[in-house]
Amino acid sequence: MLKIRKMYESDAEQFCRSFLEQGWPPKMEIFRNYYTEQEKAERNVFVAEYEKRPVGYITLLPHAKNGPFAKLGYPELTDFNVLMAYQKRGIGSRIMDEAEKAASAYGDHVSLAVGLHSGYGAAQRLYVKRGYIPDGSGVWYRNEILKPYTTCCNDDDLILYMSKKI
Which CDD domains does the record cross-reference, listed alphabetically (predicted)? Predict the structure, then answer.
């Protein structure tokens, strides 16, 4: 019933509809960019299809563009989502398995960043269980290390970078 595949152009519209149904803002332009970058071999997009419906995805950049791993050339997993109605079924783990396997073609480590607010709680737990560890540079905000005692907003731009050996 579950299949992990490349992104289809039609997935953008389906994901946007699904996001609206669960109260999230649609990301049509972002999905279209992902598809275009996939077709140019600039990004890999892994889509979980359950009963012929796209229910989750993650993207893989061959080399991190930002953060502490950009200088090291680590591949980076980005924008990981499983629709709420399909969570806690092992779908996220299956997507991650495929993405990590593909990342091994680019290096022996893989990196990612995770948001720090509670909306990222499930992802935080999953990453730790899968062996990801923080790099030690601390919290980042809007692509810069957040200096100690700095006031910031606990939004999607407040992140922690992590990696693991694959």
Answer: NAT_SF (cd04301)
Q: What are phi and psi of 90, to 5 degrees?
A: 85, 5
Which amino acid, 57?
Y
Run of H or E including 139: strand 133-141
Q: Is the pTM of this model over 0.90?
A: yes
Using DSSP bridges, classify how beta strands 44-50 and 53-61 pair: parallel, antiparallel or unpaired: antiparallel
Q: Which CATH class is domain 2-165?
A: alpha beta
In order of 31, 43, 67, 70, 116, the CA distances from 147 in angstroms are 33, 31, 14, 20, 16
User: How many residues are present in the chain?
Assistant: 166
Q: Are 150 and 133 in contact (CB under 8 A)?
A: no
* Enclosing H/E stretch for 18: helix 11-21
Mean pLDDT of the chain: 96
Residue 8's Cβ-count burial label (10 Å; 0-12, 13-18, 19+) is middle
Pairing between β-strand 53-61 and β-strand 76-82 as defined by DSSP bridges:
antiparallel
Q: How far apart are alpha carbons 93 and 91 in whole angstroms?
A: 5
Q: Are 57 and 45 in contact (CB under 8 A)?
A: yes
DSSP assignment letter at 154: -
